Amino acid sequence: MTRIFVSEVIEKDINESIHLSGWVQRRRDLGGLIFIDLRDRTGIIQIVFNPEVSEKALNIAEDVRSEFVIDVKGTIAQRDESQVNHNIETGKIEIIVEDIEVISKAKTPPFHIQDETVTEDVRLKYRYLDLRRPKLQNTLKLRHQLKQSVHSFLGHEGFIDVETPVLSKSTPEGARDYLVPSRVHEGEFFALPQSPQIYKQLLMLSGMEKYYQIVKCFRDEDLRADRQPEFTQIDIEQSFVDQEDIMALNERLITQVMKDIKGMDITAPFPRITYDDAMAKYGVDKPDTRFDLHLQDITEFSKSVDFKVFKSTAESGGLVNAIVVPDQADAYSRKDIDKLESFVKIHGAKGLAWMKSTDEGFSGPIAKFFDDDKQDELKHLMNINDNDLVLFVADKKKVVHASLGNLRNKLAKDLGLIDKNQYNFLWVTDWPLFEYDEEEDRYSAAHHPFTSPKKEDEDKLETAPEEVRANAYDIVLNGYELGGGSIRIHDKELQERMFRALGFTDQERDEQFGFLLEAFTYGAPPHGGIAYGFDRFVMLLAGTDNIRDVIAFPKTASASDLMMNAPSPVSEDQLKELHIDMDIEE
Amino acid sequence: MTRIFVSEVIEKDINESIHLSGWVQRRRDLGGLIFIDLRDRTGIIQIVFNPEVSEKALNIAEDVRSEFVIDVKGTIAQRDESQVNHNIETGKIEIIVEDIEVISKAKTPPFHIQDETVTEDVRLKYRYLDLRRPKLQNTLKLRHQLKQSVHSFLGHEGFIDVETPVLSKSTPEGARDYLVPSRVHEGEFFALPQSPQIYKQLLMLSGMEKYYQIVKCFRDEDLRADRQPEFTQIDIEQSFVDQEDIMALNERLITQVMKDIKGMDITAPFPRITYDDAMAKYGVDKPDTRFDLHLQDITEFSKSVDFKVFKSTAESGGLVNAIVVPDQADAYSRKDIDKLESFVKIHGAKGLAWMKSTDEGFSGPIAKFFDDDKQDELKHLMNINDNDLVLFVADKKKVVHASLGNLRNKLAKDLGLIDKNQYNFLWVTDWPLFEYDEEEDRYSAAHHPFTSPKKEDEDKLETAPEEVRANAYDIVLNGYELGGGSIRIHDKELQERMFRALGFTDQERDEQFGFLLEAFTYGAPPHGGIAYGFDRFVMLLAGTDNIRDVIAFPKTASASDLMMNAPSPVSEDQLKELHIDMDIEE
């Protein structure tokens, strides 16, 4: 009899004979019968040992413990109405066991598989046990489905999956590289790629036209909650396209993916917002549009008020912005608002001003600085209603955006304004080409050095780099950057100007990117693309905020594998072959 | 007007307006007209500039050179019968250009793209130009199609694509590891995985049941023609299965793949041969079954002959084997046979004895040692006909197999016996579990330490390891090992006996594999799988014998990337952060 999965049992008839294998989730002795919850990757089902059916099977079942692997044959039976378990899909039926074989015994595991309170370090050390949890198995299945969906869609669109090297070259631009010493070439190193950016551009130069890859990338950076030293990207590049082509392609991709994974019909085209507008309206470059609480700019208005903090900030080139929190004035105590102030201070604000709108006008410590006319003007300007709470920050533009943008997200969470079943995709366009690094007093590439400037801004590359906008676009989902891309430079001279603007000497440029510049001279097609953070995409679709939940064998925050015990020391002979010594501080 | 691919032109009607973009393959001026062969990734088409259609376009076309990227609009026209080019798919038509735009100019490339005589080093340095060759583009497309086919098949069979770490742990078993120094953990290293073997077994222990991955693996070994430092594997593992299940799964996989890629109906089940029989009949463990020329064992017969070399070898435990080459006696001169002898000497044979069968009996230097009766006996025994050439090696078993096995393959090539359109899949089963390493006087795992012995041979693990057969199977295609797998050990005690047989001390075993042994104690399902050399699979399907042809950006034989110039020196600061020094010999 062929073994079937638990999930397949419900397709069978009552009294049908079946064969199952799996793990013992739980065993209970009850009135001479033994009940076992049998688990496989598709679900859980109750199996029953009855002495009237098989005394032998019952005897074997008596020695069975949690996490034993067993193989059973039996028949499907309806449960009594009173015994129905509504928590599991197979809850209306059970298996009357005729024959059991213990395939593997199990010691008592170091923790109960379903116990969510066990520390993550213990779970990671016994990751193979942790992965027995249906939640993690389902997340890995979702990851698989997303991959299948992407492969299928891009394949049908004529994209070619091309693998690019993992043993690649170190380039000082960008994050810190993982290095791999070469045995054959003394004193030389490979680097693990931070992205296949240059390779995919070279594929365009080779006439491949449509490339994609779901590929591992590497960054040796200190890890944050949603970062891992190795991560997976969906990487796409196409020739003879403009920004509109790439955006339309990705809207088709995401529409298909959401249909495949979530059974949802997403409407395309997606909303678009420029970088400047996103910052002005949401304070961040990856707005969560599932709720309002927009930032409102009252800088002009502030120039005419008596409140000195607002007036002087407005007059000295700063911004005064506010968020109206509807109908929450009576819900926020002084102490609650103090907590919000502490929060915005993390993001650099010196303070958080506030007023409550009551049917007798504004209340709060700064209300007195606004006379009736100004209060009316403000109400009108910001569309403030009774019982609204209004929160203000007056500061430099950067601080106003960071503090109120993050406060906006916090308020939405606190107030339960977020519909977790909503997926808001959004394009953020017209990014600045450069970021100014105050510490190093130089410009760096906001995206990467291969992003093209907008045609009409090319003249300003040397004269006013801060004003140059890029042919760059990010796709944002529910407040997370899902992916980012650009139309690339495909002209040698323009690429050279770009490197100059970034402070490269001609020698540095040629040493690092000479081959790419030369490649541009042999017939280069216009091209552009995008890269998605695949792990983050899975995270958002799975509804978790722990990146380790979507990776089978993740690293800890200190980049260790607790199960394998990696990294680990290696032998002197291995180092000698690689021409390196340890340089350990005593 | 939407741009279309060259391959799409033939679906359109004569006189239809179209828009194409691509590279200039060739330009010819002819009687006031200009002809350009336009190339994109789908094909080549002739486009014509005629002053009566557009003087302006003609003028622009005059400045166009090879490898310029151009964009043209025009109409489809039938060529005159005399002008038809039967070498290209679009040879019956041409495009009358109305409008041309030069998108990118091109310098004269360092070599003519189609010139196959250019050295590989130059091609690899300019790989982006080399990849413009339709042959390479088609190979990468085939690689993509194979991947798509595998993803689709295994997805439909319920296998889950799970990514395993690239930053992994160094283990002394197997080939040399690529190491990655850790920045966070002083003096410690990650290793790039040689295969995801242990991870996939842990996934089985976690109840994933059906796993697969198309994954990069790494070996820091000196490279042979068909080896690369990073290579791709199709990796498959399944729980609750035996050898028959895995073989049947893979026969379904290959049947589907061959249908998808080659449009061929392959018959399953595939033929099977045991390792011992393969060695006896073909001399090698990966037989090419597209031709005969089997090895024939005449050891017993040799004991009764007067020819001392045969007789003494046979009597002292060696083998005497021969290959009958039908109807070639008159085609092979003494000199030709001398060359064959030089060839078998490479494989350790001391000499190559031979006889030719003529209508007057055997001829050749050793014929005199066989009287008429013995000649008749031999003819009968080996089914020798007139004008057959018979080639003998008498030596130790290992030498006889290696020399005649390789000679068999050489003869088939020389004689043109191989049908290149035939795909002979073959299972080789019943492998020995151990290999004896004469130099180190110890046993090593023939497959890897996790392969299970056959139940009936378990007793011999300690007493007669050389006799233990494994639950291991290789899939062979046309004389190449395409993949190999086994049913794994899933019992702690058996795995410990295996490590002991391999000479591990208990401490070494626990340090390296303690976590795996512990994992076996928490409920381990029986499991097994297979891994395919993906690059080699593509190579065989593409009909090339150069592994670099199937990899977009391959390394040279000295593991260098000539285009990127990798590996390369890195900065002192980078090394310092990784706690390593260079150890360069002066």
TrEMBL record, chains A, B:
Keyword Transmembrane helix: no
Annotated ranges, domain Aminoacyl-transfer RNA synthetases class-II family profile: 140-567
Positions of region (Aspartate): 197-200
Enzyme class: ligase
Record-listed E.C. numbers: 6.1.1.12
Protein's cellular compartments: Cytoplasm
Positions with a binding annotation for ATP: R219, D220, E221, Q228, E481, G533, F534, D535, R536
GO CC annotation terms, alphabetical: cytoplasm
Domain of life of the source: Bacteria
GO annotation (BP), single: aspartyl-tRNA aminoacylation
Keywords: Aminoacyl-tRNA synthetase, ATP-binding, Cytoplasm, Ligase, Nucleotide-binding, Protein biosynthesis
Main location: cytoplasm
UniProt cross-references to InterPro entries, sorted A to Z: Aa-tRNA-synt_II, aa-tRNA-synth_II, aa-tRNA-synth_II/BPL/LPL, Asp-tRNA-ligase_1, Asp-tRNA-ligase_1_N, Asp/Asn-tRNA-synth_IIb, AspRS_core, GAD-like_sf
Database matches in PANTHER family: ASPARTATE--TRNA LIGASE, MITOCHONDRIAL, ASPARTYL/LYSYL-TRNA SYNTHETASE
Function: Catalyzes the attachment of L-aspartate to tRNA(Asp) in a two-step reaction: L-aspartate is first activated by ATP to form Asp-AMP and then transferred to the acceptor end of tRNA(Asp).
Quaternary data: Homodimer.
Family under the similarity heading: Belongs to the class-II aminoacyl-tRNA synthetase family. Type 1 subfamily.
Name of the protein: Aspartate--tRNA ligase
Species: Lacicoccus qingdaonensis
